[in-house]
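Annex B. Sample input.
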Amino acid sequence: MKKLLFIIPILVLASCNSNQNNNTNDDYNYEPEVTHNYVSSSSLTIMKSVDKDVVVNYAKGHAKQTIRKSDLEGNATSYLSNLEAMTYFETFTEDELYYRFYDGFQDSYGRVINLKEVWLFPVAGAFILKNQINTYEKLNQFNYQYQNTSLTAVKIGIKANVPSYVGTYYHYCVNSNTYDVASYKVNMTFSIPKMETPSTLCEANQANCNWQMVEATNQSQAMSSFQSDQGNLCTKSYSLLQGSFNYLQSLLKDINSSYNLLS
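Annex B, continued. Sample output.
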């Protein structure tokens, strides 16, 4: 039986660039110290100078897909496969469509390995940022899939400490008969006290990861498996958040070279 487990706060150990000076006795290997100007996230605004109308007009001509709410509602298969989108339609109630930008790659089997997405809900002026990495492995008769995902929603003109920055780790194992023998899912919430303009999240050693195992076929085994590598797995999802920030920052620059994600 899959049961709700408990929350454990941990420290994200590595993700942003270090301020460490890497010089050695060999002058030729000297690397100057990198100085960062990190600012409290409550003092930074997301897309402060961005004009929503300009962004929407760009999306109309450049988005890779236009997803309409009416099309999802009228098709049971589409509805079920887009429950995440329907959740945001319920949140941004005046929007009847969203524009989808994405970038990623697949393996030789056609399986998605990495996918970065930005969804623009035009009326709300909201961007959904999603970044997902899948890893596949086969050991004897067992097939493993490991999935790290980050997801956050940002709106033009809100303070940077307002959005919820979240990640998910999903571990799924089946045998050759596709019988689920071991799976679990962990949700993460990242508190990010400091960020750096124009688009860097924070010093990693100042960002906490609170995680909650929300389902597992075997609680003790799943807990042991995740805890043995929790720092690395939380860091992976956290790094995907930064990847989402970078992707949106790049998109904003394509629209207007003066636009920045954080200011």
